[in-house]
Write a structure and sequence with these properties.
Elements (H helix, E strand, L loop, with lengths): L1 H12 L5 H8 L4 H13 L3 E2 L9 E2 L21 E7 L14 E8 L9 E5 L15 E6 L8 E6 L2 E9 L3 E5 L8 E4 L8 E9 L3
Parallel strand pairs: 3-5
Antiparallel strand pairs: 1-2, 3-4, 5-6, 6-11, 7-8, 7-11, 8-9, 9-10
Length: about 210
């Protein structure tokens, strides 16, 4: 019955059920009880899963839909996942997560990101940070904050454009340093620098392959 329900969920919704959903369907009150059934199915070779997560359940021989196909993604309120909005650009004077700026979303295990809802994503354009392993087209995860430590990789709003650079505050100016020896730093005079120019600190990277 458990295996049939998993197959049914994948066929109808495009993704497997959660442990709670399986428990509710089968009348099993505890997630440990559900896990006992799943482990038994794994031992018998009827089921495979990754990292003991119900969203990674896959009946043997059954393919899960790929992201972006007709299969719907897991619901955004899955306890273990967080949905991060990816911005195509950041414009001065506009709300940071304005709808017109959001070009994509990615779902990440909550444990991999510290900052929760205070994290946004930004797609990288250009190669100014290639020596830091940040490539054109990468998605950066950025924790929103108005302060940073010297040497942090930050996203800063300079003029109307967001830039990703190393942050080096100095006495008379703030130096935004690229990780590309062919490019020069950007200098902002200390008297012209405002905390609101710092959009956040880079805490992670996502690369589609």
């Amino acid at each position: 019955m458990v295996l049939d329900y998993i197959r049914e969920s994948i066929t109808d919704r495009g993704y497997p059920p959660t442990l709670r959903e399986i428990g509710a369907r089968m009348g099993i009150r505890s997630t440990n009880g559900v896990n006992d059934h799943l482990r038994a199915l794994e031992r018998k070779g009827y089921l495979t899963r990754e990292d003991m997560k119900s969203r990674a359940l896959r009946p043997t021989g059954m393919q899960l839909p790929l992201p972006g196909t007709d299969g719907a993604p897991p619901p955004a309120n899955d306890d273990n996942m967080i949905e991060v909005q990816i911005l195509g650009r950041v414009a001065a004077g506009m709300p940071l997560l304005a709808e017109e700026h959001v070009i994509d979303t990615v779902r990440i295990d909550r444990g991999l990101l510290k900052g929760g809802r205070e994290v946004f994503g930004l797609r990288v354009h250009g190669d100014s940070m290639i020596e830091a392993g940040i490539l054109n087209g990468d998605y950066l995860f950025v924790r929103k904050q108005l302060t940073a430590q010297k040497g942090d990789i930050v996203v800063a709003l300079i003029g109307d454009e967001a830039t990703v650079k190393y942050y080096h505050p100095e006495k008379d100016h703030v130096r935004f340093v690229p990780a590309n020896k062919t490019m020069a730093p950007i200098y902002v005079r200390a008297m012209d620098f405002r905390p609101t120019m710092l959009l956040g600190v880079v805490i992670g990277l996502y690369r589609k392959i």
